[in-house]
Amino acid sequence: TDAEVSTRKKTFAEVQTERLDQAERTVLIKCPSKLNEKKLLQYLSSHGNVKSHFFFENRGISALIEFSEKSSIASLQDAVGIPGASEHHVVPFKSRLFTFTLKNPVSQHMEETPLRLSPQSHIPVKDLIEKLCLADSISSQMYVLLNEYQLTEENIKLRFLACSLVRDFTRAYFPDSTVKPFGSSVNTFGKLGSDVDMFLDFHDTGKHATKMKKGPFEMEYQMKRLPSERLATQRILSVIGDCLDNFGPGCANVQKILNARCPLVKFSHQPTGFQCDLSVSNSIAIRSSELLYIYGCLDSRVRALVFTLRCWARVHGLTNSAPGTWITNFSLTMMVMFFLQKRSPPIIPTLDQLKELADEKDKHIIGGYDCSFVSDLRKIKPTKNTETLDVLLGEFFEYFGNFDFRKNSINLRKGKEVNKPESSPLYIWNPFEQDLNISKNVNQPQLEKFIAMARESAWILQKEDKTQQMISKEPWGLAALLIPFGKSNSSRMKNRMKGIGSETIRSLLDSLKLNNANSQQKAVGK
């Protein structure tokens, strides 16, 4: 559709600004169980035009209401009361979270209308597999998976609202501050149910630089000075964390993790249902989000392939939501990007090519690293590659099933294999901080398990007789790859491992058996 094309062409910054602005005009209402939608909207309209709204299930029915004007919120807030302090005392912080109950439920009960609820989580893997079997090709299976798992318009609005509600707190201390999502919430690769990573930003860039030139004086604020930026970050997050914990409506399980490499506050935001991680602005993380945003927008095959492979890796226990020695989703996504750069002709450009296209406003030097790349998608030539997803999926497994991990590393700046600078089992260059390996955490057994699974998957796709399997109602194509490879295959798996160091085979096969037991649960639970 035209609308789809026009939203696709916006720059990352434009989308962010638009969404943050939208969130500022939005409120969240816990609704009565028996609700007449028309009556609710009629009432809300007395405070101003309602631009959009949707309902979702979250311990009862909630409604997200976006007004056309920010002033409508103040008008609504004037009409809202403070809860009676019968058994609890309340913290009198007035937010944009409200509870509506019916004054006389009996009379209104008659006109209850069924509400359309927007799902905020994806279907379990076993239901997905059934759906996939009904598709007519592996490509269409992959698009079915993408459609089930990707963030919906409503879910994205809810994510930006969660950030906007946190911002209402940070503004009490830092009036210019903003709270923005980064990572999977904004890079086009987010999955329903994933956490919201948000950061606190104080830089209102550009605004001050021009004003300071006027007048005879150099002028600056008197500010508290601390020995390091890290200490400032820790203090700020500590106070904001306490604030959310003590006064934040619906903020629960607040954990301050201030000694991490990147200090953060974790909390669950019950009104929106998200797990949130709040940190202080990390410019490089934002550049990574934008880079992935660009790749995700360039060609629809990119996202379909990434979502498919993330789901595949999850089912087989190659990735895990807990930190550890396995491949992260970010590393896996970068491996997919590298593979797409290596196709002939390439499906996406290398980072160096994107840098060549950058103009003045795209220049970003962060901590001595050049993080410049083009932001305007229209400047990037579309690919001439016409390979189907069926082909690409099989080729991905082939490529990494036979990749020389001992010798080579993966470099997205150049889009080619380069000798490993050090001996980590898996070496993926950080696209921006070029002396870092983003997959430093991955150990040899985990890498070998990945290789074995890739070989096994390539083999399944090659030997497959689709028509036969469809007739006998067996899972075929992608569906066959999303069922943990069971005990029946363990002898074949041993063959897959030929040429892979034998000392890890035993631990690998043990972990496979372990994984079969719990990866089904994990995949369904996540």
Automatic annotation (TrEMBL):
<dbReference type="GO" id="GO:0031123">
    <property type="term" value="P:RNA 3'-end processing"/>
</dbReference>
<dbReference type="InterPro" id="IPR043519">
    <property type="entry name" value="NT_sf"/>
</dbReference>
<feature type="domain" description="RL">
    <location>
        <begin position="11"/>
        <end position="79"/>
    </location>
</feature>
<protein>
    <submittedName>
        <fullName>PAPD1 protein</fullName>
    </submittedName>
</protein>
<dbReference type="Pfam" id="PF17797">
    <property type="entry name" value="RL"/>
</dbReference>
<dbReference type="InterPro" id="IPR002058">
    <property type="entry name" value="PAP_assoc"/>
</dbReference>
<dbReference type="GO" id="GO:0046872">
    <property type="term" value="F:metal ion binding"/>
</dbReference>
<dbReference type="InterPro" id="IPR054708">
    <property type="entry name" value="MTPAP-like_central"/>
</dbReference>
<dbReference type="InterPro" id="IPR041252">
    <property type="entry name" value="RL"/>
</dbReference>
<keyword id="KW-0808">Transferase</keyword>
<dbReference type="GO" id="GO:0005739">
    <property type="term" value="C:mitochondrion"/>
</dbReference>
<dbReference type="Pfam" id="PF03828">
    <property type="entry name" value="PAP_assoc"/>
</dbReference>
<keyword id="KW-0479">Metal-binding</keyword>
<dbReference type="Pfam" id="PF22600">
    <property type="entry name" value="MTPAP-like_central"/>
</dbReference>
<feature type="domain" description="Poly(A) RNA polymerase mitochondrial-like central palm">
    <location>
        <begin position="138"/>
        <end position="296"/>
    </location>
</feature>
<dbReference type="GO" id="GO:1990817">
    <property type="term" value="F:poly(A) RNA polymerase activity"/>
</dbReference>
<feature type="domain" description="PAP-associated">
    <location>
        <begin position="391"/>
        <end position="426"/>
    </location>
</feature>
<keyword id="KW-0460">Magnesium</keyword>
